[in-house]
Structure formats: C-alpha cells, structure tokens
Amino acid sequence: MDLRHWPLYGLRLRTPRLELRLPGLGLLDELASVAAHGVHDPDRMPFNVPWTDGTPDEVGRAVLQHVLGTVAGWSVQDWTLSLAVLHEGKVIGRQDLMGRGFGVRRQAETGSWLGLPYQGQGFGTEMRAAALHLAFAGLGARYAVSAAMTDNPRSLGVSRRLGYLDDGLETDVVRGAPVTLRRLRLDRARWEAHRSVDVTVEGLDACRAEFGV
Fold first, then answer.
1. Beta-strand runs (E) in the chain
2. What is the DSSP pairing of strand 107-114 with strand 143-149?
3. Residue closest to 180 by CA, chosen among 190, 169, 195
4. 176-190 b/e with 16+ CB inside 10 Å = b?
5. pTM score
6. Domain 7-211, CATH number (from 2.40.110.10, 3.20.20.70, 2.30.30.100, 3.40.630.30)
7. What is the pLDDT of residues 160-195, one digit of tens each?
C-alpha cells in the first residue's frame, strides 16, 4: 500500500501478544465479523452508544462504517485512531485512541471492545497499555481519560490496573433509561509508575503531525 496520502496505515503498536494497526478493507471486514458474532451479553449494554443493538449483519456494518468514518473525518484538531487488535495474526477486537485539541490540551481518551471468545484473558489490559504508550511516550500526552458504567467491573478493573484514578460520576441515557458512568483519569506520573507491558511503536514519525503535535 502506498502510504504517502495516509501514513497512519503504516503505524504499528506491538506488545508481547498483540499487534494494533489501522485496518485496511480486508482486516476491517474481519473486525466487523468479530463484532457481528458478539462482544457482550445481549441482556446488558456496556456502551453508552448502543451500537451493538441490531442483527449481526447490522452490527458488522456499523463497525465498518464507524472505522471508515474515523478516517474520513480525521483532522489534527479532532481525531479518532481506531485500531484493529490482532493476536497471532487474527483480529480479536478494537482499540480506539481519541484526541480533541490534543496539540494544546495533551489529553487523550480511550475506548475498546473484544469479541466474546477473547475476553477474560488479559487482552483488554494489554491493548489499552499499547494505546497509552502511544499517547504518553509517542505523542507527549499529559493525561488519559476513560469512562465505564458503574456495573462494568471488567473495564473498571483494566483502568485501575493501569493506574487510573476516579474522576467523578456522570449520568447518561442508554436505551431510554438513565445510566451512571464512572469517569477515570491517568496522569503521566501514574502511567509511568504502573507500566507493566512492553510496547513498541513503528511508523510514528511519518504520521506524527496528523495528531497535531
């Protein structure tokens, strides 16, 4: 692939078990299929945007459109890096890193999901650690923020293992009902103190300016 016009496709994050990269159409189709086969118990909704409501075909299509939309809508002032997560060459989930006014604020936000067969194996912590390494070590972030519903112990557990501190509560509306989200914040000092995953980054120099830094 010629990367002159979109060098973000050459960015690679690697951990001991995972590779994270912006998916081309082939990998994106695999990612959509993972989502279509389920990412959570259908009786509960762990996301404040209920994108998993719908038939498997609708869910897969929503993933494909979302990732393509992040590329089409990218700007240095407001960006979402939506990475496919691969284990042993197989797509298992998605890790997002987002920045709004990042060049000034130096604050990044994360979001992610894993296919049901890959949950409970530590992949969630490892892929978030990769995104945080890109944010702090690669892009010079001062803070990283996240949020999860108060009844989502897995997501909250990942955040706390990585050093995040509670940053208050907020109320959102999901499926027409109120839900409580717990906000979390991680500063550079706590990120450094809680680093436990080896991460390497390739291809950043070619696309660093796209992040506003």
1. 12-14, 18-21, 78-87, 90-100, 107-114, 143-149, 165-174, 177-187, 200-202
2. parallel
3. 169
4. eeebebbebbbbbeb
5. 0.94
6. 3.40.630.30
7. 999 999 999 999 888 888 989 999 999 999 999 999
